[in-house]
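QUALITY CONTROL LOG
STEP: pairwise intake check
CHECKER ROLE: data steward
CRITERIA: each record must contain a sequence immediately followed by its structure tokens, with no blank fields

ENTRY 1 OF 2
RESULT FIELD BELOW
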Amino acid sequence: MIPFSISPSAPSSDEVAKGQIRQTNEALILAAAERVFAGAGFAGATMAAISEAARLPKANLHYYFGSKKALYHAVLARTLEDWLVPTHGITPMADPRVAIETYIRAKMALSAQRPHASRVFANELLHGAPVVKALLGTELRELVLVKAAVIQGWISAGRMAPVDPVHLFFTIWAATQTYADFGVQVSAVLGRAELEAPDYARATEHVVALILRGCGL
């Protein structure tokens, strides 16, 4: 008898469609949750308000996320993940100017596209980070230390000016997230009802140029 193995069968069209529906609904719920949590805070937000903002039945929220706390955690986790993905370009062989500039531009784009997510995260930190504190001291800390070591390597090789690599990350976070977290203040000073694409473009060029010059790049 010729031996044979059973390969996993490809998902049916029905399964694919259900998966796509799930992804779409989860994205709608997370986006709505960002807006509601940013405006009302965790305590003031309700699943009913998030349901209304997402234009989905409240039962869907409980089906996909289980509870308000689980949904809040998912919003914070997604925000942190999206902020950290651009750091993947910070590698020993990368060009320091390109890597740092790419990271800054990505962070500015996220502030422009998803300001509510940044505000939810900032509010969590202002309240002592009760939900994500453990994550900050483990995964975030470990990643920053790894990337800081890469930047220190660039400095030691004379590829950029001496700076404190860890505090460089703090500076980038502060400079980029302020346009989301304190958008009302920035808009008021600029005489705008709210920040628009040209404002973000101007701010991005300023932040990029300022930090790159500080890094000798």
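ENTRY 2 OF 2
RESULT FIELD BELOW
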Amino acid sequence: MHFPWWYVPDLTSPMLIAFIAIIHVLIAHYAVGGGLFLAVETGFAYKTQNSTYLDYLKRHTRFFVLLTAVLGALTGVGIWWTIGLASPLATEVLIRTFVFGWATEWVFFVVEITAAFVFYYYWGRLPPKTHVVIGWIYGGAAWISLVLITGITAFMLHPGGWLEHRSFWVAFFNPQFIPQTIARTGGALLLTSLYVYLHASLTLKDPKLRDLIGTRSARPALLGSILITVGGIGWYLRLPESAQAVLASAAVLNVLIAIIFALTLIVFILLYLGPYRNPGWLSPGFALALFLFGLAAFSTGEFIREAVRKPYISYNVVLGNQIFPKAVPGLRQGGYLEGGVWPKAFVSMRFPEVIVDGKIDRSRLLSLPPEDRLLVGETIFHYHCNDCHATTRGYSPAGPVLTGRSRESILELVTHLDESHFFMPPWAGTEEEAQLLTDYLVHIAPPRPGGMIHREIVSEQDP
């Protein structure tokens, strides 16, 4: 509650995080798997003295460096920018908990970037063995970066015993660490093959070289599909109880899981029948279909991973509306507006008449004119609800969800959020603040549509 709110109309700030993060993840996994691919294949090309393959690998490295080092770096900075604005409390917790982990990851990131540029710009000027070693330094550093970041992000889904021990190592080696590391390593291998297939099919005219690339990349791609499946099963089995409940109760998430397994199976079959058994199938259309199926499956998995954390941003650590769970009783007693630096500053500046002895007088809030009550209610909504809900349109808008509800039912919903929907954070304000929030929600809720049955009981005699 000591951070200002960042309001993103319609989309909501967390969805902006998701948009940038998914792009970054799709590139970052290619950065890991692509490094391993280039190290292995450059060594193979040198060993077999295949100059044609070496020429292609150099061209692919240029594409690889541009995509991962430029766009990957930009989206990586974009993630830090958006999470710092949209989820400042959760970001603060992650930075303080994993200072050593972040520092270590940055060291490997510097090694990774340096090795990538040396690998490309010194192509042909280094002895083959040295060139391959540089490739392996890049691939190893990239994979270690993946492992370090996975330990930190997996903590958000299940911190394990960190709440009791507050140890970096307990936090890092959380219950989700191994399953997610396996799945993400598999994702890096699979996505890299799909990137390679698409790039090769669009840039190569030599069918013999295209077939060689298809054959050699098929096995790591198939292995990647298997690792994703194994890691995904482990991910589900190590979910905290609340996350499993969210997954079971949300029909759309179950549909998305079915879609993921279907797409993964399709990709596996196409990889086996295509590049593995019939490399000649590697046409631009076939490669594009594989690429799109793989991206759809991976992106859907990322969405589900984020969705099941509710009502938390970090399980049992930070609630979805940027509040520590232990702070809820105090906010209910002392006031939600009073407990936040920025909400209180706004109320004090805009409505000085409600301030008594330096504190917000809750009874005076209720005596404000209707339009001012709506403004205070909107402020409460932005801080308490906007992390998950837009207003009248956009992502999960609160207004349409409340269509046709009476004021009494909306007030009951507000004061019992976590009882009405267990995946929502509890109400963290006073009764007076609940009244003000209800005013605003009633204001944005569409009227009851015509043709719907009202409370009145229709008698059997009515036609």
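INTAKE CHECK: passed for both entries
DESCRIPTIVE NOTE, ENTRY 2: Confidence is low (pLDDT under 50) at residues 457-461.
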